[in-house]
Amino acid sequence: MSKQWNTPPAMVIDPGKTYTATFKTEKGDIKFELFADKAPKTVNNLVFLAREGYYNNTTFHRVIANFMAQGGDPTGSGMGGPGYKFADEFHPTLQFDDAGILAMANAGPGTNGSQFFITFGPTPHLNNRHTIYGKVVDGMDVVNALSIRDPQRSSGKGDVLETIEIVEE
Q: What residues act catalytically?
């Protein structure tokens, strides 16, 4: 069982600073620019969980061709999370208009936890439904190489996310 918390983390970031996250996977590195100024609570959540090692050796448990790759669930089932939920953060300039968008997976409004997804292309139907908090700046080839996987049908393990490194500038 992964670590659990009762409440979302206190602020550990400075929204005025610049943050990048490098997702180190078994297939290579994916580097994201994080939007701390536009989605501070969500970026804070990623930074907190990454620094706690929460994402270490988790998998991309759900990967759908031409749509998105989802991870961030230590159970690998799509049902796991950190023990708390937090509100969405929508910003008018952040849209699902490109590949490489990093956003929160959820089960409806205000149900963000630890799960995230990365888009393979524009997905405008997700605007104002999932908090966008980053974009791939290097490693889109790694995202595109992730193995297609449906956790309901697959008995094999998804591609491994070894760790997430956070850089604050």
A: 62, 67, 70, 106, 117, 126, 130
The whole-model pTM stands at 0.96
Non-local CB neighbours of 140 within 8 Å, separated by 6+ positions: 30, 99, 100
Give the domains, in start order, of the chain with CATH numbers.
19-168 (2.40.100.10)
Q: Which of 10, 17, 53 is nearest to 33 (CA)?
A: 17
* Opening angle at CA 145, ends 56 and 58, nearest 5: 15
29-65 pLDDT tens trace: 999 999 999 999 999 999 999 999 999 999 999 999 9
CA diameter of the chain: 44
Strand ranges, E, within 11-114: 19-25, 28-34, 58-59, 62-64, 68-71, 101-104
Using one digit for the tens of pLDDT, what is the confidence trace for 14-30? 999 999 999 999 999 99
Q: Which two tokens stand for residue 59?
A: 């998998």
Q: Where are the alpha helices (H) located in the chain, listed in sequence order? A: 40-51, 140-145
Residue 32, CA distances (Å) to 7, 56, 58, 77, 112 in order: 26, 17, 18, 25, 19
Percent of the chain with pLDDT over 70: 98
- The phi, psi pair for 143, rounded to 5°, reads -55, -45
